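Posted in: Protein Modeling Q&A

I'm a second-year student putting together a small comparison for a lab meeting, and my supervisor asked me to include a predicted structure for HNH nuclease domain-containing protein. I've never done this before, so apologies if this is the wrong subforum. The sequence is pasted below exactly as I got it from our records. If anyone can share the structure token output, I'd also love a short note on what stands out.
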Amino acid sequence: MLEDSHEQVSAATVERAMCVAELTAILLGGDNVPFESSISMRLFNRRQRRALAARDGGCMFPGCDRPVSWTEAHHIVPWKTSKKTQVIDGILLCRHHHMLVHNNGWVIVRRVAEYYLVPPASIDPERNEILLESKSALMRARKRAGAPSERGAATIPPG
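Accepted answer (user: helix_wrangler)
Welcome! Here is the predicted structure, written out as tokens:
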């Protein structure tokens, strides 16, 4: 159930909310009395968002030009599975592409320090991986200069 509502929601709705919300889990006893409560941080914090911004430079979906300010941080490994919020397992996506990943069978995978988009079989029956390129001017300049890939190891700006 959602706060201030008596309506139940689907598991898919809860999973989508887990990407962008701070959730408080409350375990209810058989008589619906709260038995235990805990807070789980699923959101990337400010320093992690800055690192993602420096590394990704905006929405990482191919062809999208949405800037960092229009993006959401997506957990590549679902938080409900890993219970971790780490820069290396996060990627910036605009709302449209974030929902496309969650609702339409697109998958993002990490191979060491590179990220790939895997389309659903309905779009590409062979599900060929598409390398996701950073839109960050800093990362593009490093790549042109022949610097080794350090995706996921971006320097976190102070603050």
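A couple of things worth pointing out for your meeting: Residues 46-144 form one domain. The two ends are 36 Å apart (CA to CA).
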